[in-house]
Amino acid sequence: MKSLTAISIIFVETVLFCEVLVPNRQTINFFDMHTSLFPIAFPHNSPLPDGSTVMAADVGGTKTDLALFEVKDGGLLHIKETVFPSKEWKSLSAMVRHFDTGLPLPDRLSIAFAGPIQNGKAKATNLDWSVDSGELRSDLGISRVLLINDLEAEAYGLAALTEHDIKTIYAGNGTSEGNASIIAPGTGLGEAGLFWDGSALHPFATEGGHADFSVRNKLDWELLKYLQSIYGKHVSWERVLSGPGIHALFTFLRDVKDRPEHGLVREIMKGHDPAEAISLAASEGDSLCQETLRLFTGYLAVEASNLALKFKSTGGVFIGGGILPKIWNESLEAVFLEHFFETGRLRPLIESVPVHLVLNSKTAMLGAGMYGIFAG
Hints:
alpha+beta, Nucleotidyltransferase, domain 5, Hexokinase, domain 1, 2 domains, eight-stranded mixed beta sheet, 12 helices, 17 strands
């Protein structure tokens, strides 16, 4: 799943989507909880029988990744995958109908959704439409529709990862057993926990990314006042640790701290998303953009250590999402490690916590698929 053989860009009714071609139909072997990198507990131990099919959906504010899997010979056979721009479609049903053209209906639809799930329903935080598992079941004619939070799915997806999908930023000085947590900046900020029962980790969803941004120094206070002028009294960590957050940090440094903006970043921004443009300009040596990414990474370290303290994550902190693997370098790693351990009297506990960067961008989609197979 980590390497894609080919990507074709297809226009249908003026809507752009990206179909991932899978000519060799890669098989993902079922994990063994005792031999996998990270022992993840699923609702049931036994998978669906061979021949069963599951459609996995990873629904985010920017894109939705749909993939079809078949259970075969002790593994998941990857049959088809398509990526849709979420905001250009009116509903998940419309995407599934387009994806399913010419194919039999799957036995299950398993959805990882970027938003709080309540009673099988969810309204996206960074998207104008919602999902209802009951309505999808009736509308699409799929016998079982499962709906879980996208970071919960990302946590389940850890079970499918290999050592090539993980970069260890800090190994920790403890036993690496215990609760774990995952933080994932993207279009928004997702956070989830994993409870350790003595032999396996049980993922659970949170909405911690919407908790208040915390102030430690004068610069933080200036940033908070700036963001309050835009968003109002409540400023969450998501306003800082996300793609839009990178752009907000950039404009704060430019407009409040009077950092000069050079022509390079203005030119790149004409054809790119602002956060992507800032990352590209930083890689070209733009000083304002490099400072922006250092500030972003420092705040990420602070909130990652907050998460580790709240969940006592001696089993590890995982950094997911689509942003960090694209911008990570030795300089940003040094910034992260400088700020991660600044936890006062509990520094010895944080020093025992390993930190891993998740490199596989398909982790949440894989987690949704595996959850569908093992949901019972």
